Known about the structure:
Elements: H1 6-10, H2 14-36, H3 38-46, H4 49-60, H5 65-79, H6 85-94, H7 99-123
Amino acid sequence: xxxxxxxxxxxxxxxxxxxxxxxxxxxxxxxxxxxxxxxxxxxxxxxxxxxxxxxxxxxxxxxxxxxxxxxxxxxxxxxxxxxxxxxxxxxxxxxxxxxxxxxxxxxxxxxxxxxxxxxxxxxxxxxxxxx
Length: 131
């Protein structure tokens, strides 16, 4: 694995600020819509806005199509272990769990499912976490 370019990660350009603001606006709009209709809010948040934005930003930064393709494929595989959370969390909340314990349990479950996904996919030649 290459050395991490920390200076690139902690230095923010004007475009980085635009990205942050645009992404934040989308999240705020979705949370405002939730006040009126939680199902429409859920639909909006289920749309891959952040993935689409990330790929647009990658393209405008002249990243290779290979990197963008890897990002899109990785996103597909990483979504799978997060899906059970959207069924388990409501189940726990409706059955007496407090918000924070239910959220913690879901985070732990998602991490475990994430690593299980990585391990299983390696057996099929798909390496999401190269060594």
